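Re: the 420-residue chain
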Amino acid sequence: MEHITLLLAIVVVTALVFDFTNGFHDTANAMATTISTGALKPKTAVAMSAVLNLVGAFLSVEVAKTISKGLVNEEGIQPEVILAALVGAILWNLVTWLVGLPSSSSHALMGGLIGATIASIGVSGVNGGVVVSKVLIPAVAAPLVAGLAAMFAARLTYRMDKNADKKTTEKGYRAGQIASAGLVSLAHGTNDAQKTMGIITLALVAGGVLAPGSNPPVWVIVSAGLAIALGTYLGGWRIIRTMGKGLTDLQPQQGFAAQTSAAAVILASSNLGFSLSTTHSCSGAVMGAGLGRKGGVVRWSTATRMFVAWGLTLPAAGLVGAGAEYVARQGDWGVYTVAAFLVASCLAIWVISRRQVVDHTNVNDVETEPAGVVTTAIAAVTPPPAAGSVAAVADEDLKTTIPAPVPTDPAAPPAPAAAV
C-alpha cells in the first residue's frame, strides 16, 4: 500500500503539471484575437482569462465523467497507465508549444491514455464507441461548425455596420471582444479543467482510493482549477502569436464573431459531455472569421501545419504513452525512470525555447520578409543622408566621379576621370 500511495502521489502531481501546461497552451484560444486587435493589453488579457478559467472549473463535471468513466474500462487500469498517459500528453503539449502550433491538449491526453491502456491490457480496454462518438466526431465537427458560424457572423456584422461610423463600431466591437473572450475563458474552464479532474479521479479509482463510478472529490476540482488558472496566467505567448497573427489578420468585428461562435460551441459540448477540443473550435472560428470579411484571407501554409499537428496528436501521444507504460510497469525503478525522463525532457524544451523568447512584449510583432537583392544592393551603394538635412538635393550633388576604363596599352598614359 505504501508503494501505491507514493505512485498515486506522483500521478496526481504529474496530472496537475499537465493541467498547468494545458492552461498556457490554450490561453491563445480565449485571448489571441483580443490581444491582436488591441482590445486588451497582453498581461491584462491573460490575468482575466486565468480568473475565469478557475471559475469555470466549478460549473460542471460532465466532461470529467466522460474521461474517468467512459473512455477506457476502469477494471484492470493501474496507476502506471495514468502516469504514462500524462507523460505522452505533457510532452506533446510542450513540443507543439515550442513550435507555436495550436494543437489539442484534450486529444493529447486522450491519445496518451488510449496508447497506455492498449499497451497495458489490450484493445479491449478502450471503449471504441465512446472514442468515436465523443472524441473523433466532435474533433471533426467542432472546427467546421465554429468556423461556419464565425464566417456568417462576421459577414452579418459588416453588413449591419455598412453605413455606421468606423471608429465608433470598432470601439463597440472591442468591448464585445472582451466580453466574448471572457465567455471563452469560462467555457475553457468548464471543459478542459475537467479533463484533469477526470484523469485524477481515474487514478484514484485505479489505486483503490475511490470506488468505481465516483465523481471527482472537491479537492481534485479545486487543485485542477488552480493549476489551469496558473498556467493560463503565464500565457502561451508563442501560440498566441500564431492564433492572433499567423492564421489571419482580424479586425475587431471578426474577433468578436470568432470568440462568440467558439464559446457557444464549447459550452454546448460541455453540457452534452463531449470531450471537445477548445483549440479546434477556436482555430476553426478564427479561420471562419478571417473568411467572413470581404478581402480577408487565411494563411493556409500555417493552417496546413496546424492540421497536420491535429492529425498527429492522438497517435504521437499514444505512442509515447505506450512506451512510458512499458517502462513504468517494470516496478519502482521504471516509475522513477519515467518521471526522470519527463523532468529532463521538460527542462530541455524550456532551454531550447530561451533561444528565441516570445512574451507579452513582442507577441504582436510580425516578422517581415527579408529584403530582396535589388533593395540590398541599393542600400549598400547609397550614402546615408546628412543628419537633420531636409533640403532638396541639387543637381550638382548628384555628380560623382567614375574611373575611366583601364587602357589596353600599358604604355599609354592614364585617361583623366570623367565627370557625370
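Strands lie at 401-402, 418-419.
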